[in-house]
Structure formats: C-alpha cells, structure tokens
Amino acid sequence: MVASSPAQSAALWALREGISEAQNHEGPSLKHDVSVPVSRIPAFVERTDKALEKVVPGVRIVAYGHVGDGNLHYNLSKPEGSGDDEFRARAADLARVIYDSTRACDGSISAEHGLGQSKRGIIADYKNSHELDLMRGLKQLFDPRGLMNPGKLLPCSGH
Fold first, then answer.
1. Fold annotation for 22-114
2. Among 2, 13, 99, 121, CA closest to 52
3. Nearest CA to 102 among 33, 31, 32, 36?
C-alpha cells in the first residue's frame, strides 16, 4: 500500500509500529530478521510457513517488513493454548527452519538488525570462512581496539 496523504502515512506507520506490542500481549514472540530477493518473497513465505507448521503445528506467523527491498521481519507467536516454555523450547528448531529456507531462496539470515548475539553461534553455518573473515576485517577496520561490543557479533576465528 502506498499512502496518499501525510495522515494516511502516519496511520500506516502507527499500525506497523504497533505489531510488536500487539504480539507481546499474546506471549513470547520469536523474532527473525531476514532478507531474500524481492522476486522470491512469495516462494519464501509459502515454503517457510509450511515448514514451520510441520515443526510446531498452529504456530502463528507475523511476517512484515520492507518488502520493497526484500527485508522481512519473520516473527512467530505460540499456537493458541500452548505454553510459553514449550514454545520457547522450540526456538532453535524454528529459527533453523527460517534460516534454512532463507538460504534456499538465496537470502541472508541477517538483514536490518544485523547478527547480534542471537545469531553469533550459527552464523558459520550460513556464511563461509571467507565471508566471516571479511566481516572480521571490517570490524577491525572500524574498531581496531575492539571497544564496540567486544566478542558479541562474530565468532572467533576457527570456530
């Protein structure tokens, strides 16, 4: 949708900004920030939705984002009637489904929000050693003394 007025634009942004808050009322939300080529978004969503349903039947998918550039916030809410702890216990399995599907669609498991700590342990499964070395090189270039988030973004070399 394209806003046709400043008021409509503000209303659309208010809806978009309220998504996370609305999800919080439903219990835990497992958040994923991925990107895929724009042309592959429909296939990615269809493939990923089906695969997630097999892992956790009834999982509620809240997908939105900057689809014009392929960036998707692919968030999950627990099935109605299920327990919070039970849902959180499946977080790694659900993330793996999303990230495997992202890779299969030539996407990246890290988009607008970067790697962060949550993806630090699995990034080597989705990036080759050359790509990781390039990331470390950029980190070294911009933060030669390692003052910004030391040890939080990339696994050490050899891991």
1. Alpha-Beta Plaits (3.30.70)
2. 99
3. 36
Instruction: Tell me the pLDDT tens digit for each residue of 61-75.
Output: 999 888 788 899 899
The residues, any chain, with a CB within 8 Å of residue 91's CB and separated by 6 or more, are: 30
Locate the domains of the chain by residue range. Answer: 22-114, 126-159
Task: Give the tokens for residue 132.
Answer: 């990781």
If you search the block for the tokens 């939300």, which residue do you land on? 29
For the chain, how are helix, strand and coil distributed in percent, rounded to 5? 50, 15, 40
Per DSSP, which regions of the chain are E strands?
29-30, 33-35, 60-66, 71-77
Closest CA to 56 of 23, 24, 89: 89
> HSE on the CB side for 93, CA within 13 Å?
13
Is the pTM here over 0.70, yes or no? yes
Q: Kindly give, in sequence order, each residue whose CB lies less than 8 Å from that of residue 131, ignoring residues fewer than 6 positions away.
A: none
Q: Which residue in 88, 94, 107, 108 sits closest to 61, CA to CA?
A: 94
